[in-house]
Amino acid sequence: MSATSRHRALTASATALTVVASTFAFVAASAPSAQAASCSSTYLSYGSRGTCVKLLQKNLGGLSVDGVYGSGTRSRVRSFQDDANIGVDGRVGPQTWRKLATYGKALGWKAGVTVYMCKESSTAFRFSAWNNSGDNANWNFYVSQSNWPIEGDALADDRIEAQGKVYAGAYNSEKLVVWVGRYGRDNAQTTTNVRSFSRNTLPACA
What we know:
Layout: H1 3-35, H2 51-60, H3 71-83, H4 94-103, E1 105-110, E2 113-119, E3 124-131, E4 137-143, E5 149-151, E6 159-167, E7 170-171, E8 173-180, E9 188-191, E10 197-198
Antiparallel strand pairs: 1-2, 2-3, 3-6, 4-5, 4-8, 7-10, 8-9
């Protein structure tokens, strides 16, 4: 091979490597920025799918976490928007994300009552409750480590209310007991399908 031919071959190889390197750099730079897109700025509506839908379903509570924005998710979103006194359209945008962030993550739900909690500080959790049962309601949320209940005030229907604070490190929830309409043993409705809460699992309060 002549010197000229070797020079042309080396030049072509260098150009090819530059193109590959540039393409890789573009992909590497794009992936983190795509992953950095926060769900709080993502718009969701009927038919949406993905990780942000899963986050919505998990934090809203009372839904299967399947990542599919179907009719059940839309109906739950509409009820939440109505009872949170924001625009009701069944679609999730920044306003709905912000309102949901003020309550945190759903820890348990039964008979139309959902209990939420968020991390207010390194030692305090704030809890709220949403009553969508169709009647007045009361609730107790029991914690397994100490068997003491987080007790909820009486809730009017179609309301989401801040209930109080818990000063603790990390706990596992044991059960949620709900009374709808009247308070009494015969009217207690219980679920043990509840989530633990700790500094690592709860979102920060907005």
